[in-house]
Sequence to fold (214 residues):
Amino acid sequence: MDIAIHYPLFKGWNMHKDKPFSQACENNKAPILEKLAGVFNQPGTVLEIGTGTGQHAVHFARHLPHLVWQPSDHPRNAQLCLPWLSEAALANINPPLALDVMADDWHRLPAIQGAFSANTAHIMAWEEVEAMFRGVARILPTGGRFCLYGPFHYSGQHTSESNERFDRSLRMQAEHMGIRDMQDLERLGRSAGLVLDEDFGMPANNRLLVWRKA
Ligand SMILES: C[S@@+](CC[C@H](N)C(=O)[O-])C[C@H]1O[C@@H](n2cnc3c(N)ncnc32)[C@H](O)[C@@H]1O
Fold:
């Protein structure tokens, strides 16, 4: 399959056995799954934003069979996950949707009960992060959860030297990228009608933040 990776900035992505591959996904999928199993414990459809390689989608759908997993990504990368999806051939993963969080077409998405996104907030420009929160808040039903995984700052402070280095390298690659502040995200969520419910510490100085639609 001819797969183009349109975001060569993502360090650590490569092609492995004809599939796009991220070692970070392999490392973090088990701890993330453990938390998602508790958060998304009822049957329903979960929209994944910025699916990337598809490793997360396959792992979570396989181990959370009560869910229907709906992958999506920016139109430029929406097909990237196809090799992982076709190899896994799971009945509870829908074909990936092209979704640019900035586009005003969230209304065409299927009904969902939850949303998940990993390692996207520091890649998107801040306006895109805002659009993602607005979009998720718009389509989540009351009580629905939005899980956001990644590295975050607290009150403008780095939580580790490795995150500080990572933040610096992101900003050197592109001005619009950078690790987001947890308090800014909390404010953003609140203004969109999302209440921060949980802040789980995860391996390698990452967090899993969980919002609930009020
Ligand atoms: C660092 S990758 C993370 C991929 C995967 N979630 C992971 O954890 O490996 C960032 C992802 O955000 C997506 N992305 C960037 N801007 C976006 C936008 N405006 N709308 C939707 N997705 C976007 C990229 O296409 C890419 O798949």
Notes: The two ends are 43 Å apart (CA to CA). The helical segments are 23-39, 55-63, 82-88, 126-139, 161-173, 182-192. Residues 7, 10, 22, 25, 49-52, 56, 73-74, 77, 99-102, 118-120, 123-124, 128 surround S-adenosylmethionine (CB under 6 Å).
